[in-house]
Amino acid sequence: MTRDLTIAVLGGGSFGTAIANIIAGNGHRTFLWMRHAARAAACQRQRENPEYLPGYRLHAGLQVTAGLGEALQHTDVVFISVPSKSFREVTRQVAPLLKADALVVSTTKGIEPQSFTLMSEILQQELGQRRIGVLSGPNFAREIVRQQQTGTVIASADREVIDCVQSILSSSTFRVYGNRDSYGVELAGALKNIYAIVAGMAAALGSGHNTQAMLITRSLAEMGRFAARLGADPMTFLGLAGVGDLVLTCTSDLSRNYRVGFAIGSGKTLEQAVAEVGQVAEGVNTLRLVKHKAEQLQVYMPLVSGLYKILFEQRAIADVAHSLMVGEQNTDVEYMSQ
User: Fold this and answer.
1) Which end of the chain is more exposed for a tag (fewer CB within 10 A), N or C?
2) How far, in Å, are 211, 218, 298, 305 from residue 328 at the CA level?
3) Which residue among the candidates 85, 99, 109, 192 is catalytic per the annotation?
4) What are the extents of the domains in the chain?
């Protein structure tokens, strides 16, 4: 892979900014697109994204712009890193501006309501036969920009997409693994947000290490069970994008979803908790979608059902926790018995 590619990262949040900076540092011509012109101009001038990554200096080669056409005019690879609620809208704006051979990669962890559509499926619907990929993993942006050792996963059915993204993003502190199960990788990134809320809630209630270990492993079992029913490879969930991302988001207060759960466990209402966090917590919306989908598919997901009762049916946390402990017993590692 040559070092003179033109790359665009769409979305000026913390993760989009972090990977754009890595790419620029790797020697590629790199654009970071932000929707709001004033913020883009300020970031370009100040060489910092004070709203999402304050105190971190942007690479001199990174161009911040609010002009979508400018960002995409000669672009070889596009990373879309906007919230899930804006993903389809941005993809539609992108479609007529792309080069014929441009690769497109989603970094967004979420599910579109109503149709239970993942972001890669939106790319397929809106962009046709383009080569696409999904980037996901245990990746807190603040740690990435501090150059702490981090791993991520690029998933695609197209080997060239995997090779290209690995070449673009890999650095001495950012390692990129490949996976062919893009649906499983993407589903893992969306589902783990639900269980981060559960883990944050348990931490606020003073749970010990025994409880935390049980919650994480049973969360992993639910994720794999649900994903397998939808056609993903459950073994994907044993990798970095599955258990790796789950452990990260369930054990750190850098996770927005964990902080929402902690606030609820501390006695706040859901509305107060979301307002307190101040940024999008995808797990709240994902919970609604997964609860209804699991019922349709008749997939046993007691943690999802229990959290739904607490957040949306005003059930007491203690009552739900008790019912989970005395409820139906289940096997430990289901796929060993198949």
Assistant:
1) C
2) 18, 13, 15, 13
3) 192
4) 6-180, 185-336
